């Protein structure tokens, strides 16, 4: 309020700020932008635009993917223009990476200190949010290209828990990318509606021509990116099947280990049990001339049988692991191809 009052009357500044609270944050064909009456009886024309920000991560996967959207209102005054951006709630503020996110402030001090015909020009003020949308759509494409690598990393993961965590992260980022394109569609739809019924745009033929040109380009990009999202959805579905296959394989391996242990225990203790049972039936030694094995001999026989059983199972287990290793290598080669 105090900042605006340095350039315009306090009443006009108050009216402009109060009008921001009346912004209808939706795209409607029947809603024309608000026109404010200035302190000297003149009309202040406005136009509302929907802006977005997708901060580029430059391949840094540890940085969370963010998508922020904000409405802005451009006011055309006699002495120039004023652009006021929608206030953000606490949830949206948590997404901020830099204070200027979703506001076009990426300019050095010379842009504001040096004399320029573009500063305060209503055409330039209109171009800024549109250029910013195009800039962030370019960021979207870069982030999508990085995202495409994630499903393949999930597919080659052997651990089911790690694969599930990576799949969840990929799904979350794809949802953010999809949300950005949805809001971009609303932004172009809003621009189309403003072309039809906004007085500020109707007053300036340069703005109309620029808006029509950019609208066509934006719509082409959004159609292209929606096609990419459809392919990504199919890829993610296939990745989910791969994760399920890994989980099923681990479950089968766990069941196989359990069965192997049970077979191992049964085999190891079967022969000693048979030997002890045989000699405990009192069959041997009924004749006086018949030699009766000593307890030591029976014990030695049991130990030998246990050793033979363990050795046999170890050899079987080694052979089984080699077969699994060969099958895994063939599976990875098929994925890479």
Topology as a string of helices (H) and strands (E): HEEEEHHHHHHHH
Number of strands: 4
Strand percentage lies at 5-15%
Quick one: biggest sheet?
A: 4 strands, antiparallel
Mean pLDDT: 78
**Content-based structural category:** alpha+beta
Task: Calculate the terminal CA-CA distance, rounded to whole Å.
Answer: 63 Å
Q: What order do the strands of the largest sheet run in, or round the barrel if closed?
A: 1-2-3-4
Proportion of helical residues: 55-70%
What does the radius of gyration come to?
A: 37 Å
Low-pLDDT ranges: 283-290
Structure in words:
The chain is α+β, with helices and mostly antiparallel strands and 337 residues long. It contains 9 helices and 4 strands; from the N terminus they run αββββαααααααα. The chain has helices at residues 10-20, 90-93, 109-113, 122-147, 149-155, 160-197, 199-203, 205-279, 295-336; strands at 36-37, 43-53, 68-77, 80-85. Strands 1-2-3-4 form a 4-stranded antiparallel beta sheet, sandwiched between helices. Helix 4 runs antiparallel to helix 6 and helix 4 runs parallel beside helix 8. The longest helix has 75 residues, at 205-279. The model is unreliable at 283-290 (pLDDT under 50).
